[in-house]
Amino acid sequence: MTTNIARARWWLAYPVALALLLILDAALGFWRPLPSRLPEQFSPAYLNLYVGDAPRNKPVIAFLGDSVLWGYKIPEADSAANVLQRRFPASRMLNMSYEGGSTPNSAVLLRYALHAGVPLAGAVINVNIKEFNHADSAYRTLHPSLERTAEAVLTPGDRRVLKMHPAVGLNPALNRFVERYWRFYRLRADLCEMIFGTDDMAGALVRSVQNITGTAAAQELAHRPTSDKFLGTYDLAPIDDTNVGMQYYRILLRELCAAKIPAIVFLTPTNHGLLHDYIDVPEYDANLHALMAVPHCPRVTVLNLDRAAPSATFIDNDHLNAAGQRILVARLSPYLRKMIR
Amino acid sequence: MKSQSTDPAPTLEHSAESWADAKTLITTGTDDPVAASWYLTKSRVWPFIADARFGPIKLGVVLFVIIVLSILLSPSTESHFIYTDF
């Protein structure tokens, strides 16, 4: 054994490991996940892949917005974008909405998609009045992955108005450095999402334990939406041009018109049955009117769907269940048909 | 002629909490966990890689698996942006 050990070229283990890592990286280069919507967690690299893989041979309709359009708590197949994809198979409904969307997110994502050369034939955008509230987490914050992916298209104005998250410190700097050269490391969060159904194994384990012990069901029960939980969700102060949401709403409409992209922009259905005490007041309607009154070109259609869905079609204050998503599909379909024609 | 001992046969007594089972004791010949681990490393793990021709390749594969798993199994450092309304 000693002779064998002495003869062995142990240093060869390093190039072997390196070669395998290179093979893995090359294989990941062929990875085209092409989901019908973005996963719950996605890295900048994944967003780049998702947008970059938009087909060039058929009209692409971009869906921009928040969790309502993404299809929060409903199966992928039931989300409006997916149902519309089945209804209009000649076009590609590129669902770029995600949890944490807002008008700044939609405006920057649209700019990024155009910059990436996605041949947009149209856009469907939801505008959620609750995100015009200063207290909303997406009010002036870009999704961290969008912020990094769209760095090249962010203007000095964006950097001034929006809350940015620059990489400060050794750890983020090292992460970015390694991610630049190593695809596997760059896509680690997405691979974990694919393998574990969440962003890491610890999360998956916690979820399993919660399911086994019944904690998950108890938490779900405790989180049952009641009107008092949305006391501060909707800001009834007048939405004017000092509001960042409004500023980016204007930018969004302006950029759609400048790029000559036909678009359907709709005010998100809201559960008035649940929120009656808070939002069935003149101030709320005045804010809806303010959004509807923002000037735009004829290519853009703005729909007020705030009261379009009955209470029974909501999961909570604004997230629609499958029946609610079908209402959305019914309201959007005639406009989409015209847009695609 | 060998004299017959009157002493009882030696037994490997170990408590219920002991790590070892009878099979491991027979295999390793000890109930000392450190000595048993060293014995198993030398007799099972080491020969797997201590081969002049394929040892380094096997070690390279092991290294690769350790690197990949350490990345996939480590806790996420990504920013969680998902917000809840309540």
Explain the overall architecture.
The complex is a heterodimer of chains A (341) and B (86). Chain A is of the alpha/beta class and 341 residues long. Chain A is 49% helix and 8% strand. Chain A starts with a helix and ends with a helix. With 86 residues, chain B is mainly alpha-helical. Chain B has three helices and no strands. Chain B has helices at residues 22-28, 33-49, 55-72. The longest helix of chain B has 18 residues, at 55-72. The model of chain B is unreliable at 1-5 and 79-86 (pLDDT under 50). Chains A and B meet through α1, α2, α11 and α12 of A and α3 of B.
Question: What's the structural blueprint in terms of helices and strands?
Answer:
The complex is a heterodimer of chains A (341) and B (86).
Chain A: H1 2-7, H2 13-28, H3 44-52, E1 60-64, H4 67-70, H5 80-87, E2 92-95, H6 103-115, E3 120-127, H7 144-149, H8 156-161, H9 170-181, H10 183-186, H11 188-196, H12 201-213, H13 215-222, H14 244-258, E4 263-267, H15 272-279, H16 282-292, E5 300-304, H17 322-340
Parallel strand pairs in A: 1-2, 1-3, 3-4, 4-5
Helix pairs in contact in A: 5-17, 6-14
Chain B: H1 22-28, H2 33-49, H3 55-72
